[in-house]
Amino acid sequence: MSGGAFLAWLHLVLGVAVTGLALFWAIMGRALTRGAEAADAPRLLAVAAGARWPHVAVPWSARLPLPLLGIFVLVAAAVTGVALGTPGTLVSGLKVVAVVALLVCFRQIGKQPTAALGYAALVLALLIMALSTLMAR
Amino acid sequence: MLLYQAAVILHVLAMALWIGHMLIWSLVTGPALKAVEPAATAELLRARSLELGGLGWPALAILVVTGLYLLDMRGTGLVDGFLGEAGWPLALKLWCVLGMIGYQALVGHRQASLAIYANIALALLVLACSTVLVRGG
Asked: What is the Cα–Cα distance from A100 to B85, expressed in whole angstroms?
């Protein structure tokens, strides 16, 4: 695998990880606001947002809260994306806007997670993946 | 052409949801939520994070349908693909996907310490093969 292909693979893996993280917030938002704990959903979502990773081997103070981890992974994906080169097209411009919007979403989830933010994060992550597909073609 | 483009986008989105959920839940959110205090809250949050546990099979259905269509558009049959007639990246990808389907059918969301890492390795290989298929080595 060439260097360029490796970078593209890494970009793809990070993009998939971002989608997985966004999906997590959408699932948690939906599950907690519709279940028996609906009245307690804001508190439980905040507890989930306070969960840290990695869960072992690293001192607790050095572990990343899940929303911040999402931001780190998204920034890493963006860096690899820039390294791959931005074609300066409408599609790549839209992708950049979506990435910034997703960053804002993850940041807000870190402050006050809601189901709406989870859904928005998922839609943005999927939009980014779809736009990436158009760029790859 | 539009149908082909739509199939590629659907294929990538289904992949991102399927592999993204698997990667993040297994490696990040599942373990992170386990460490939440008190234990009852941790158990509740982990259970809710699997609320859409049935996401895998619909995503796979989309992947198989769009994958078969895309193979057909490449002029490749499924058996030929598995046998390497259309090149090693496609063959390796198909065998890895088959392995992941087997894992999902036999293990799913049950605890499976070492097997989960093998499944993750297969997923990363699938992404690598996909990258090579699109960009070349």
From this structure: 43
